[in-house]
Design brief:
Length: 965
């Protein structure tokens, strides 16, 4: 258009165009999520946030639930970790699994009872404490110095460990010392001493000379659980002959002078302690002449050897000796045989005993029997009235009862060689054997079996009741329940006796006095009560070593036994640490009370599970636990045990610093409950961190969407008029909560994680959040309110499911003055609606079929003709009217298309539920605000936005152009 402007200077002509209008922006009119909850945190900020959350929100959580929650408490009795150093990944697995268990109850308003404890005594602490103190040889022999330094070492370790447990978010009443048990506390010691007296008076505790595992390097008896095994230990392997002095009837007396019993041993150092030969009456024995492979005779030509017939072939292969069988002898014919001792030759009539432990799998079928150095040997000799003879002292050195050439020699150093040299003429064959051999788990030095005076618990009197109780308990994981029960019962059944005494200074003394001359035990309630009173008064039991006898004895005690103080000596033994830890139930359980759960590693079948059970049966005639959960061991990515020597240690402190505490907890939950070998690697923890990152993103969206966390259920009625998408998610939420916490109750935390991830990925993210975006961002106030209600339920119940495993993430997301665990969230049973689920599942099935068929980038341009089976039509018509091309139905929203026309198949026997005909509508223009509905025309006037958006923005009925800032 030309416009003429008049100026004084004359006429000028200008050609002008109207500038194009700026496109209207509707961003400010859209209901987008808004939150200050960050997508991620820098490492430094995360560490600081974790510390603040633990100190502010978790510090009072245990006390809060203890005071507020009602009903009987769920009792998880804490197996005490050892107070001897920093924590490793095994500790993290154990303590975090316990904390997940506790939190899964707290978040459901269940009261829990969890008292953390520490095992504070034992040689590892003693050795480390004295090494750290650089104590000289004099100090090493002073029990009071040892005890003071060991106690301080344990206290320091406990403080460090407690801080690390807290840093992992473990709930407990950490600040209240009365809510933590320590095995060196005076109140614990008093309970333990009373337990000992109770068992002693019942005849379940006794003192005797018996063979036990003995560590010469530690100078103490050891329990089975204190042993490790060296798979590459090398022992001498020899066949040695014992000359018979009385032969089976079938052999003439003249020939008997040249008959030898052939035995096999890997412990020649025990031969001087031999007191019998054992045989099996069910075996057949052969009298053989020996020849070597070069036909040279062994010994004299008239020498003959007794050996089990079934072991001849093995013997010949091992020795390259040829056995010429001259006679067969039935095993029971050996019962009256006697032989000459191979070392003490003056002993001419040592016996043969029939014994079931003699087998035909290895050796010769004739077993050298030294009751001072073997359990089977001891039992058979005691049965036959043979007194026990021991010539090895506590340092593993031959004493003056041994031959002169052995006296003062170490049995495991020089003993084998010296004995073999002395018996050279009687050794038929010698070689070496590489095999598994027990070693002291502390010093890593080999142990021996040695008879000594020790205190024992009579497990034979407890086994039947213990096995009966094991049958009653529940065992988890469920997949291994029967095998685990069978294993525990087998361990209890085969346990011969329990040695509860140790020969060290750092521990609880066995409170017994002995008469000097006779060795008679002096113990009664008066003595024990006096010791307990002193223990409480002194707040420790060090006086047992430091105070004179007169102070240790109660008044008039000696008069009862008609003794003087000089006639009495106090015992020098302490309790085995398994007696300490096995009695911890007495500290946390009342009367006949049993813990709901013991949760420990699989090594505790021979340790704490068993010692706790046996002591509880002995004292209370019942089990201390209703259920056991058994987890495995942390190993590196190659399945190797972590050790400094291998350089494969991964520290939980480093893991939590790098990836976050919740990532450590997530890894434990994902991997700690289903395998006995729990692989640890940075890659696996990184995967845990990434999984949490995806969960965090969903929480961030939900957090920003709900705005008001106080929305009540009255904000939305789940009626038939309400959105199927909303009702479907609520119905799924009800099932989700029920499934998650049923898995928590079965301790299947790996499946809890899988369930959470599946629900987040499929139900929340892929289905609901994706499909309701249009209605939520651009819908009416009522629609947005109802979606917010649904999202709020989703958010709170997802947080509830996550809180036991990832509590720091949940509390950070919640970010409210009221702690998350103080709220009560529970899905309503009325939400569950199977008819809604059937409708939605069919609609989602149609959506999957559509996705496979279409390649369109923007499905809102599509119009569908869908032929359906009768069943599908009956369901889908609730989402969309039949024979209608409506664009505003919920089915259109779910399928994300412009319009749908539902019709039934013409053929009643159609093979599929759906047949989809797709038409792409290129003739429509989508609303710039919602990008779903088409812009409509009215009286040839084109409007800027769709009718729905106009109504939402409260525009006039005449659709005028909207002007926005």
């Amino acid at each position: 258009m030309n416009q003429i402007l008049r100026w004084k200077s004359g006429l000028r002509f200008y050609s002008i165009k109207y500038a194009a209008k700026e496109p209207v922006k509707y961003t400010s009119t859209i209901n987008l999520p808004r939150t200050k909850f960050p997508t991620r945190l820098a490492q430094k900020a995360r560490i600081e946030l974790e510390r603040n959350l633990i100190e502010s929100k978790f510090a009072s959580c245990y006390q809060y639930q203890e005071e507020r929650h009602q009903g009987a408490a769920f009792i998880l009795h804490d197996g005490p970790p050892y107070a001897n150093g920093d924590l490793h990944m095994g500790h993290a697995v154990n303590k975090i699994l316990k904390d997940i268990t506790i939190r899964s109850h707290v978040i459901r308003d269940h009261k829990v009872h969890y008292v953390p404890g520490w095992d504070c005594h034992g040689l590892p602490i003693e050795l480390k404490a004295m090494a750290a103190a650089n104590a000289g040889s004099k100090s090493m022999n002073d029990p009071i110095i040892i005890r003071k330094k060991s106690r301080q070492f344990a206290l320091d370790a406990i403080e460090r460990q407690k801080n690390q447990f807290r840093s992992w978010g473990v709930l407990a009443n950490w600040n209240n010392i009365s809510k933590v048990y320590l095995t060196f506390n005076s109140n614990f010691i008093v309970k333990q001493l009373n337990l000992f007296l109770d068992l002693y008076e019942k005849g379940l505790v006794y003192r005797d000379l018996k063979p036990v595992y003995w560590s010469p390097s530690s100078k103490t008896a050891l329990a089975e659980a204190e042993l490790e095994y060296d798979a590459n230990f090398v022992s001498p392997s020899l066949y040695v002959r014992f000359r018979l002095t009385n032969c089976p009837i079938a052999i003439s007396k003249e020939s008997c002078k040249h008959i030898f019993a052939l035995i096999w041993t890997t412990t020649p150092w025990t031969l001087p302690s031999n007191q019998a030969i054992c045989y099996n009456s069910n075996l057949m024995y052969a009298l053989v002449k020996l020849e070597s492979d070069n036909k040279q005779l062994h010994g004299k030509d008239e020498d003959r050897y007794l050996i089990a017939q079934s072991l001849l072939e093995d013997f010949q292969k091992t020795t390259n000796k040829i056995c010429v069988v001259e006679q067969l002898i039935q095993g029971d014919e050996l019962k009256n045989c006697t032989y000459q001792h191979p070392v003490f030759r003056e002993q001419q009539s040592l016996p043969f005993f029939n014994a079931a432990h003699v087998q035909e799998f290895k050796g010769t079928g004739l077993v050298h029997t030294a009751p001072a150095h073997g359990l089977d040997d001891f039992i058979i000799c005691m049965k036959n009235g043979i007194s026990i003879r021991s010539i090895v002292n506590e340092e593993g050195i031959y004493d003056n009862g041994a031959p002169s050439y052995l006296e003062g020699k170490m049995v495991l150093d020089d003993g084998n060689e010296l004995v073999m040299n002395h018996l050279k003429k009687d050794i038929v064959f010698v070689s070496t054997l590489t095999h598994s051999y027990p070693i002291d788990w502390r010093t890593k030095k080999p142990v021996i079996i040695r008879a000594s005076q020790q205190w024992f618990i009579n497990t034979a009197a407890l086994k039947d009741k213990a096995i009966e109780e094991i049958d009653k308990i529940a065992v988890y994981p469920r997949v291994n329940a029967e095998a685990s029960k069978k294993s525990l019962k087998a361990q209890v059944a085969k346990r011969p006796y329990w040695c509860i005494s140790r020969q060290r200074a750092w521990g609880v003394p066995i409170p017994v006095l002995y008469e000097k001359t006779s060795g008679k035990v002096l113990l009664n309630k008066k003595l024990l009560q006096h010791i307990c009173d002193l223990t409480i008064k002194e707040d420790n039991i060090d006086f047992w070593w430091s105070q004179p006898m007169e102070k240790v004895l109660p008044p008039s005690f000696l008069n009862e036994f008609n003794l003087e103080a000089s006639d009495v000596v106090r015992g020098s033994d302490i309790f085995d640490i398994w007696f300490d830890s096995g009695s911890t139930w007495s500290q946390v359980l009342e009367n006949q009370q049993a813990a709901d759960l013991y949760l420990e590693g699989c090594d505790q079948f021979t340790g704490w599970f068993q010692s706790s059970l046996l002591l509880s049966i002995a004292a209370r005639n019942c089990t201390p636990y209703k259920a056991l959960f058994i987890h495995g061991f942390a190993v590196d990515e190659n399945g190797h045990k972590m050790s400094k020597s291998l350089g494969n240690i991964i520290s939980p402190k480093d893991i939590s610093a790098k990836y976050g505490v919740d990532s450590l907890r997530w890894w434990v939950a994902a991997h700690g409950t289903q395998h006995m070998a729990i692989n640890v690697s940075h890659q696996l923890v990184q995967q845990a961190a990434e999984s949490l990152g995806k969960i965090r993103a969903i929480l961030r969206y939900l957090n920003g969407s709900i705005e008001d966390k106080s929305l009540k259920s009255s904000n939305m009625l789940t009626t038939t008029a309400e959105s199927y998408l909303n009702r479907f998610l609520l119905s799924q939420l009800y099932s989700f909560e029920k499934e998650v916490f049923s898995l928590y109750d079965c301790y299947e935390y790996n499946r809890v994680i899988a369930c959470i991830q599946n629900f987040v990925t499929n139900q929340i993210s892929a289905n609901y959040i994706h499909l309701i975006k249009d209605r939520f961002y651009c819908g009416t106030t009522k629609e947005i309110e109802n979606i917010r209600f649904t999202l709020k339920q989703c958010y709170t119940l997802l947080c509830k499911a996550l809180w036991p495993i990832a509590p720091l993430l949940v509390e950070e997301s919640w970010n409210d003055s009221k702690n998350f665990y103080e709220n009560k969230f529970q899905a309503e049973p009325t939400w569950k609606d199977e008819s809604v689920e059937n409708v939605m599942e069919k609609a989602l099935e149609l959506k999957r079929a559509l996705n496979q068929q279409t390649k369109s980038k923007n499905s809102w341009f599509l119009s569908l003709q869908v032929n359906c089976s009768k069943n599908a039509l009956n369901l889908l018509e609730r989402l969309h009217p039949l024979n209608s091309s409506s664009t505003e139905s919920e089915l259109c929203e779910i399928l994300q298309v412009n319009s749908v026309n539902l019709q039934s198949f013409t053929s009643p026997t159609a093979p599929l539920d759906f047949e989809i005909d797709i038409v792409s509508r290129s003739d429509i223009e989508l609303c710039p605000r919602c990008r779903r509905f088409a812009i409509r025309s009215n009286n040839d006037i084109k409007h800027d936005i769709c009718q729905r958006c106009a109504l939402c923005l409260h525009l006039a009925k005449e659709f005028k152009t909207v002007k926005m800032d």
